[in-house]
Amino acid sequence: MPSPLRILTLATFFPHTAKPNFGIFIERQTAGLAAREGVEVTVVNPIGIPPWPLSLNARYADLRSLPRQETWRGLNVYRPRFALFPVVGARHNAGLIARAAWPLVQRLHAEQPFDLIGAEFFYPDGPAAMQLADRLGIPFTVKARGNDIHLWAMRGDTGPQVAAAAAKAAGMLAVSKALKKEMVELGFDSGRIKVHYTGLDRSRFHPAGRANDRSRLDISGPLILSVGALIERKGQGLLIEALPKLPEAKLMLAGTGESESQYRRLAQQLGVSDRVIFKGSVPHDDLPSLFRAADIMALVSENEGLANAWVEALACGTPVISSNVGGAPELIKSSDAGRIVDRNPDAIAAAARELLASPIPPEKVSAQVAHFSWEDNARELEEFFREIVRVRTHIRDGFGYVA
Fold first, then answer.
1. For a disulfide at 219, which of 57, 214, 247, 283, Cβ 3.0-4.6 Å?
2. pTM score, whole prediction
């Protein structure tokens, strides 16, 4: 039996009753790790709520009612509150999180010491984990997922905090080789960055049952599906602009976001509003049916790390149209997986026409991600954590502790 390994997972992105899809892949990764023999995981999910009277706003009602501690889908989750200052306060979030979480983390560590803190996003999780780990005298790691590097690492107010966390972290993870390359270009130590791909539940995401799913969802004719937040960076507007060039196809947008009203107006202006389906937020458990029912999954983002929607769509036998960003070339390495296109409506429409004219057998598409699994994801994560703890223990016991 392996020696006990106690991990504190710090994750601002983590599901709860108010947002059950929020950070669901972090939840799935954490659950896989916690299921490993000899591994104990405690999740700290800081919840940001503005000071009074802003806290009374109805949009924060569900967050105010969340329990401070609960068992969430088998995981032990604590949800300390920190002061959130909307719009203007991003630079302070890491420090506010560390301050709010410290009494809880200190108490839990005193009861049964943690070996390591794993931060699940580079900002604000990374700098907050750095402060907490420094106080406890234990190592910490940070995982980069995409927008934390593309946005927060580039800002003048949060970028230095991201860089400081990268410099002090005992190890770092990146969701794709492309993201690791970007981190190295920012000056992060390549030798301390490991590529850690997402997992996949193949018992749910598979090609079988496509015809039944199309019938049950009352889908006829070509369907292009896009899964992701409705924000400009994700590029759904380009898909709507491509639709007049695809007169037989419908476009389904699964997600919500600040650009929804803009996209509705665009569809109306282009005369395709009757062919754009705004599906809204879709529970993760319902995504396999949507992926299987679609002929194409399109996501032409401005930037990505490695979109889980790419992996899950391919697993369901649905080819992907993606922009040339992040880990897309690491997935779409064959024409059997889909197409990588320029971010313009003409290129998107041309790729869609090609895929619709010559459908790829779903089994060939699914085979492109046969190497993804949550079991491998959890095993690799445990190995990563154990090696960091082993090295740090060796330094402490052999040469004097280095925090």
1. 214
2. 0.92
Q: Which domains does the chain have, with CATH numbers?
A: 5-199+374-399 (3.40.50.2000), 210-236+244-261+270-344+359-369 (3.40.50.2000)
Nearest CA to 210 out of 398, 362, 359, 62 is that of 362
Kindly give, in sequence order, each residue whose CB lies less than 8 Å from that of residue 79, ignoring residues fewer than 6 positions away: 16, 44, 45, 46, 47, 66, 67, 68, 69, 70
Other CB atoms within 10 Å distance of the CB of residue 280: 11
Q: Is the pLDDT of residue 403 over 50?
A: no
pLDDT reported for residue 400? 47
Residue 290 has pLDDT above 70, yes or no: yes
Residue 400, sorted as left (phi over 0), alpha (psi -120 to 50) or beta, turns out to be left
Query: Which tokens in the block code for residue 15?
Result: 């599901």
Helix (H, G, I), strand (E, B) or coil at 224: strand
- Listed in sequence order, the residues at least 6 apart from 108 whose beta carbon sits closer than 8 Å to its beta carbon are 8, 42, 78, 114
Reported as a single tens digit per residue, the pLDDT across 241-288 is 999 999 999 999 999 999 999 999 999 999 999 999 999 999 999 999
Q: Any alpha helices (H) in 198-344, and if so which ranges?
A: 210-216, 236-242, 260-269, 287-293, 308-315, 328-331
Please give the pLDDT value at position 55.
87
Residue 318's φ and ψ, nearest 5 degrees, are: -105, 120
